């Protein structure tokens, strides 16, 4: 079994530039330690931002004989995170695979719930099972809780917290029970809690029930429920480089 796990991460700083003028020699000048010569830009002009500001990691997960091996496959520099860009990336990687006499048809794909990525994966890998990361599902839920001003109630009110956690646990139920369990939870909630969580219930119904397919976010009986293993691939390297890096450091380091 071969799975692909997608994760987007860094955004680069503006490119360090060399501005004309009397500068002391390196390492005290504009090409100091840890920097690389950039384009010559006149004084007063802003530092240019790279054309490809996003890093996208495609990791592989291989299970020969039940023993899992994770490895990075591709580090792609992308100009944005639109559906067309993702499709072009997948098409380019597929062309490379074909040139090597290979067929790129992953059995399973796991990612976050980025709205532009989901249709791109569906278009380019129609036969692959696309699952959403359970960690990112809960992250989306808690961000919505914060956005709706429910963070204090979540932390201080046990009834509110219990109801929210039951929502977060729905992906762990058998898929045929997930939708019914949501409506049962909403119907049987304490009236005061139901009123307080009204907007959260509406959000879940609109987005997770009627917009994102239940098949994508349901991870019941699924061996790998998160793409945390992908983060284990690239976080050590990116931590060494730093959160805000220059493209020259990335491509040469």
TrEMBL record:
Keywords: Membrane, Transmembrane, Transmembrane helix. Residues 70-139 form the MULE transposase domain. The keyword Transmembrane helix applies. The chain crosses the membrane at residues 54-78. Pfam families: MULE. This is MULE transposase domain-containing protein. It comes from Rotaria sordida.
